[in-house]
Amino acid sequence: MHLPVPTWTSSWPTGRPVGVWRLRLNALGGDPGAVLRRLTVPSEHDRARRYAFAADRHRHLAGRALVRLVLSRWQNCTPASLAIAEGPHGKPRLQDPPADGPRLHFNIGHTGPVVVAAVSEAQPVGIDVEPHTRSVDAPSLAERVLTASERDRWRSRPASCRQAALLHLWTCKEAFLKATGEGLRRAPTTVESIADGSTVVALRDAPGSSAPSSAPADEWSVRPFSATDGILGAIVRKGTMPSPVSWVDATDIVTRSAE
């Protein structure tokens, strides 16, 4: 699966573009948990402790650390002063956004050692990442998440490409469902992808579906990308996707900020 490969920079972008920030946990060095705890707040530490495995604890803290660093810079405040709450369906949001400032939206995704955060001014955003080698029951997953025409298109792919192609479709749909805040309360089969070759370029409500009118899929933009070698990603934003999108590898930024 060949998706667009962003040019990642390690410096802060100018202005407030739609941005994707990436953190590579395996490049933090030392004790990642200690680094991330210095950038997050006690309630997030408590939440992280509920996870049985250290890797899951680190991913949770990394997502919140990324969001706090980015939003605090845009709002000229300290990371710890941001109040982050969960919406009615669990999507995190700023609890008390400034009345006279831009409304900032964000979303977090992670897989393995890679954590990503998408931030958007004014419009909701969602992001998802998956390893293209993820072990899945492909026929079963395809039945659950693809429309009939998507399944036909998927089955026409060479057998060696089908798993990555399926996960590409899934990341685009998952990013959309995260962006709207609906999650899996909305059936993935109500959303249909439009592809240019093998790459998704747009979304629409599936023909004949009972998709909620509050979030027509064709009002959202999708941009697939390669998060790193072997990891597929997609970012979805309501309205048009501004160009350029800012791509920041924040691993060094996180390390320096925690010192």
From TrEMBL:
Q: Which GO terms describe its biological process?
A: fatty acid biosynthetic process; lysine biosynthetic process via aminoadipic acid
Q: Which residues form the 4'-phosphopantetheinyl transferase N-terminal domain?
A: 41-119
Q: Which UniProt keywords apply?
A: Magnesium, Metal-binding, Transferase
Keyword set includes Magnesium:
yes
Q: Which InterPro entries match?
A: 4-PPantetheinyl_Trfase_dom, 4-PPantetheinyl_Trfase_dom_sf, AASDHPPT_N, P-Pant_transferase_sf, Ppantetheine-prot_Trfase_dom
- One Gene Ontology term of the molecular function aspect: magnesium ion binding
Q: Tell me its cofactors.
A: Mg(2+)
So which domain of life are we looking at?
Bacteria
The kind of enzyme this is, by top-level EC class, is transferase
Provide one Gene Ontology cellular component: cytosol
Ranges of residues in domain 4'-phosphopantetheinyl transferase: 124-199
Q: What is its EC number?
A: 2.7.8.-
Give the family, as the similarity comment puts it: Belongs to the P-Pant transferase superfamily. Gsp/Sfp/HetI/AcpT family.
The protein depicted here goes by the name 4'-phosphopantetheinyl transferase
Species for this entry: Salinibacter ruber
